[in-house]
User: Which sequence fits this backbone?
């Protein structure tokens, strides 16, 4: 199994190495914290999910975002999370909440820090930026968040990256 995962990673990396410019299509909304509506923007987009939400996060302690993911799961939306290894040992992490709700949570410990902050919704909406999915990011930190829709080439690149990290991650256990 590890050999197959390694081959998948190598193939995906070969495909995603390209640094060619991507077309500028679709729409982009920008949000800034503190107190800039970043958490509400994320929650609102998750509420609109119909099929799938894929999460990559460094720090994930936001109760409103975790609850929005749980609500989406209850609506039948497939949810997955790939989180940095710090979530496995943190005093509070949404990893435990999500796992207890039956949402697959994987830990990416292949890097010094898995510093991604990405949510992919229905393979059509990309949420990314410096914004950590935490209360501090919303209320205290100076962070940014982009909600990008309608840019298929960009979405495909982020999906490939997500799959690369998912392939070398391990199930969360607490």
Assistant:
């Amino acid at each position: 199994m590890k050999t197959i995962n390694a081959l998948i990673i190598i193939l995906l990396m070969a495909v995603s190495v390209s640094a060619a410019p991507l077309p500028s299509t679709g729409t982009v909304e920008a949000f800034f914290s503190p107190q800039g509506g970043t958490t509400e923007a994320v929650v609102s987009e998750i509420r609109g999910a119909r099929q799938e939400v894929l999460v990559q996060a460094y720090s994930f302690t936001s109760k409103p975002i975790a609850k929005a993911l749980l609500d989406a799961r209850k609506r039948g939306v497939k949810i997955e999370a790939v989180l940095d290894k710090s979530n496995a040992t943190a005093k509070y992490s949404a990893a435990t909440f999500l796992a207890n709700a039956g949402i697959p949570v994987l830990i990416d410990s292949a890097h010094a820090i898995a510093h991604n902050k990405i949510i992919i919704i229905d393979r059509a909406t990309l949420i990314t930026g410096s914004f950590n999915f935490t209360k501090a990011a919303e209320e205290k930190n100076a962070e940014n968040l982009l909600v990008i829709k309608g840019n298929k080439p960009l979405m495909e690149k982020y999906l490939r990256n997500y799959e690369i990290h998912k392939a070398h991650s391990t199930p969360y256990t607490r």
About this structure: The chain has a mean pLDDT of 89.
